[in-house]
Structure formats: structure tokens, C-alpha cells
Design goal:
The protein is mainly beta and 319 residues long. It has one helix spanning 2-16; strands spanning 19-20, 24-27, 32-38, 41-46, 50-55, 60-66, 70-71, 77-78, 82-88, 91-97, 104-110, 113-118, 126-133, 136-141, 145-150, 155-161, 167-172, 178-183, 188-192, 198-202, 210-216, 219-224, 228-233, 238-243, 251-253, 259-263, 270-274, 280-284, 291-296, 301-306, 310-315. The radius of gyration is 20 Å and the shape is globular.
Length: 319
């Protein structure tokens, strides 16, 4: 009888979670390595050497910006894989692989002109870049250093080594005053953007590499190699984790931080949780390959991209 009751409870839990399939999709040329959503425009960085800009509601491509091909170690021309992209007003930031020694190229695109800021000659291994304002860009290095680059002087205002662990990801708060850095140690560093100083550490919930982080409304989420989806309240630095069944490659918080999404299993499904109760409120099924990016468009709509050419659009009001 006890076994039977346990089976009924487990069955109820499984079927009580609403299952959603994509409401729509966008086909891109290449694989999406990074995405940002600003003012209704989705900017997609691809491994084919270009970014694609979409009106997200119309699913209409507005523009495509292409970088010159680069030479690989054999001397063959290949597309410059874009690892990170961002937009501020009418200028775009493109961080790409130079094809030489793991070093990075950094470009700004504005007024229909492509301006190169860094090349392989600078020997910088940058993994992620984001605008802080019109003239400053935050850089995250493979060596887990953070730097603030002044676009006017072309010089760094600072460069700080956060730890000896390898960098994984960073995410800015809404005001772009604080950034959370993740690395292979599992410790998350909260850093003051203007000074580069660590203001707080978030730790105890992940014990291995944290692949991705998000930062919304005073809360931080982390996607862990240790199969833990971590959640921290920044003000108190207290946290909890939700246990998955596979490596967790992606996470996103809703604008209010009332919901969190994690890629929690080997089927590439996305699980959505209530951050207060930690209860699963939705299961998004349909990803065909390893998840790269999850974004919340608002409290009900999400966008996801995997190691394929399909960007999926989800609506928690429509199964």
C-alpha cells in the first residue's frame, strides 16, 4: 500500500506540472552562441561570423552585420565565430574568435561602419563583453579577470584578477552598477562595475563550474556542472539550490525574479520554477540539442537557443 501511494504521489507531481511546446520559432543561419534582448529587438550572435537582429514580436529580421572571415591554424579562411554581442542605442558590440591562438577580436559597428578595437595582435582571450554605457564596455577574460574598457581613449580603466579559477560567465544587474562573475570553482563574485572591486561572494550552493548566471531584481541564479541550479538573494548572500538530473547548461530569471528557468535534464528540457516556493511550474519540451542561452522576454514569454539553427519562443499562457 505504501509503495502504491508513493507511486500515486509521484505520478501526480509529474502530471501536475504543465508541459509546453514552442509557440513559435526563428530559423537563423548558423548556431546561436549568445543573445540579448533590448527594446523588442533580439540580437543573435552566430558561429557563422555575423549577428542577426530581429523584431521579436514580428519574428522579422531587421538587419545582419557580418565580420570578415579569419584564418585558422591551417591558414584556411573560416567564419569568425561570434561569442558575444550587445547593443547600446544604435551601436553594436561584437566579440569574436580571431582564429589565432585562442585570442579575440573586438569590434564596434555604428553608422554603417565596422571599427576594430582589439585583434589577435593584442593577445587577449576575452570570453564575454557587454556595454555599460555609450563609451564603456565590460570585459570578462578566460583568466577570470574583469576589465572596464574606455572606448574613447581605447584604454582600460582597470583590470582585476577575481580568482585563479577559469572564467565561465557574467551577468549585469539592471542598473549596470554591479556584475556577478561565475567560474569553475562554484563561487560567484559580485563586482562593482566602476572600480572592479569584489563587494561580496555568493557561495555554498555550487561545488563545481557554474556555466551560466543571471542577475535580476536583487536575485542571482547559477547553472552548475554539479547538477545544481542555484539561487541567491544578493542582499543577504543567502542561497538555496534545486537539484537537477544532468549538467545544467543554462539559466534565466524573469524580470521580477519571481520565476527562474534551468535546463535540468539530458533531454534539453527547460524547467521553470517559482523562486519563492522552489516548485516547478512549467516544463518546456522541444529543444533538440544542448542549450546555449535562455532569456525571459517578460514574466510569461521566454526565448531559448541551442547548438542548432532554431531559436524557440515559449509562452507560459499557451501550451
Amino acid at each position: 500500500m505504501k509503495l502504491f501511494l508513493s507511486f500515486l504521489v509521484m505520478t501526480f507531481v509529474v502530471y501536475a506540472t504543465p508541459i509546453f511546446t514552442p509557440e513559435n520559432s526563428i530559423e537563423i543561419n548558423g548556431t546561436a552562441k549568445d543573445m540579448v534582448l533590448k527594446n523588442g529587438h533580439l540580437i543573435v550572435a552566430t558561429d557563422m561570423g555575423h549577428i542577426e537582429i530581429y523584431d521579436i514580436d514580428k519574428r522579422e529580421k531587421l538587419e545582419e552585420i557580418t565580420l570578415p572571415d579569419v584564418k585558422d591554424f591551417m591558414g584556411d579562411l573560416i567564419p569568425a565565430r561570434i561569442m558575444s554581442a550587445d547593443v547600446f542605442h544604435n551601436q553594436y558590440l561584437l566579440l569574436s574568435d580571431s582564429g589565432k591562438g585562442g585570442y579575440s577580436n573586438l569590434h564596434i559597428y555604428k553608422n554603417n561602419r565596422l571599427i576594430q578595437l582589439l585583434s589577435a595582435k593584442d593577445k587577449e582571450a576575452i570570453i564575454k563583453a557587454r556595454f555599460i554605457d555609450e563609451t564603456h564596455v565590460l570585459l570578462g577574460f578566460l583568466s577570470n579577470e574583469v576589465a572596464l574598457l574606455d572606448l574613447v581613449t581605447k584604454k582600460e580603466r582597470y583590470r582585476v584578477q577575481l580568482s585563479e579559477s577559469k572564467f565561465s560567465d557574467f551577468a549585469l544587474n539592471e542598473a549596470k552598477t554591479t556584475v556577478v562573475f561565475s567560474c569553475e570553482s562554484g563561487v560567484l563574485n559580485l563586482v562593482d562595475v566602476q572600480s572592479g572591486k569584489i563587494v561580496k561572494n555568493l557561495e555554498g550552493q555550487n561545488v563545481d563550474n557554474v556555466y551560466k548566471v543571471d542577475f535580476k531584481s536583487g536575485m542571482v541564479s547559477g547553472a552548475g556542472q554539479d547538477q545544481r541550479g542555484s539561487l541567491y538573494e544578493v542582499s543577504s548572500a543567502k542561497g538555496e539550490y534545486i537539484k537537477g538530473t544532468f549538467l545544467i547548461y543554462g539559466t534565466a530569471l524573469s524580470p521580477s525574479a519571481s520565476k527562474v528557468a534551468f535546463a535540468m535534464d539530458e533531454k534539453n528540457d527547460i524547467s521553470v520554477y517559482d523562486t519563492l516556493t522552489k516548485s516547478k511550474i512549467a516544463l518546456l519540451k522541444g529543444q533538440k540539442s544542448t542549450l546555449n542561452v535562455i532569456l525571459f522576454q517578460d514574466e510569461k514569454r521566454l526565448i531559448s537557443a541551442s547548438d542548432d539553427s532554431t531559436i524557440m519562443l515559449w509562452n507560459l499562457d499557451k501550451k
